[in-house]
Amino acid sequence: MERLDLLGFLLITFNCNVTIVGKIWLIFAILLRMVVLLSAGAPVYQDEQERFVCNTLQPGCANVCYDAFSPVSQLRFWLLQSLAALLPSALFCAYVLHRGAALAARGLGLGGRDAGGPRDLPVPDLSRGYVVHLSLRVLTEAAFGASHYLLFGLAVPARVPCAQPPCSGVVDCYVSRPTEKALLALGQLNICQDGR
């Protein structure tokens, strides 16, 4: 029964130190972002390089033009963004559980003092840690939003002119499903902007 009380105390400590907006953001922005990426993003980007067609037969030209067009896979970038956005929340959860477990250990008499157990302990105020956590989360989202804009821009063009060294002159390359990719990109940027 004491173990259940300890678990309840830790859950109450976490619940009292996270706002309802933070809980909703964590559920919708992280889980919904992952579901959208895996269910909608994976089919759109699975044949990304194979469907990038250039109007030349010059060997290596299409590969060089694709690398110039997309230096980083957008899908992998968004997965990294989702994991990086989850990291401050995971660190805050570990901090809350550590502080709560240390307080509960003292309350159970494990620290040399005898108290009535977790039920009699006050819930610690970890609001400073929560503010630090929110600041890290917002900075992470802003950094990834700016990086996305610098790497990819806001739109995905249907036709990309390319004049990289193995190509002879300016070559037109065509991107597969540019509208779907642009909508996914805007959706990812909107999630990171709204999720504060």
UniProtKB/TrEMBL annotation:
Any one Gene Ontology BP term: cell-cell signaling
GO cellular component terms, A-Z: connexin complex
Topological category with respect to the lipid bilayer: Multi-pass membrane protein
Alphabetized GO MF terms: gap junction channel activity
KW Transmembrane helix (keyword) present: yes
Principal subcellular localization: other
Keywords linked to the UniProt accession: Cell junction, Cell membrane, Gap junction, Membrane, Transmembrane, Transmembrane helix
Matching SMART domains: CNX, Connexin_CCC
Subcellular location: Cell junction, Gap junction; Cell membrane
Domain (Connexin N-terminal): residue spans on this chain: 43-76
Membrane-traversing stretches: 7-32, 77-97
Occurrences of domain Connexin cysteine-rich (ranges): 140-192
InterPro entries: Connexin (IPR000500), Connexin_CCC (IPR019570), Connexin_CS (IPR017990), Connexin_N (IPR013092), Connexin_N_sf (IPR038359)
Keyword Transmembrane attributed: yes
One family name in Pfam for this protein: Connexin
Gene3D superfamilies in the cross-refs: Gap junction channel protein cysteine-rich domain
Family to which this protein belongs: Belongs to the connexin family.
PANTHER family reported for this sequence: CONNEXIN, GAP JUNCTION DELTA-4 PROTEIN
Record's subunit section: A connexon is composed of a hexamer of connexins.
Protein function: One gap junction consists of a cluster of closely packed pairs of transmembrane channels, the connexons, through which materials of low MW diffuse from one cell to a neighboring cell.
Protein name: Gap junction protein
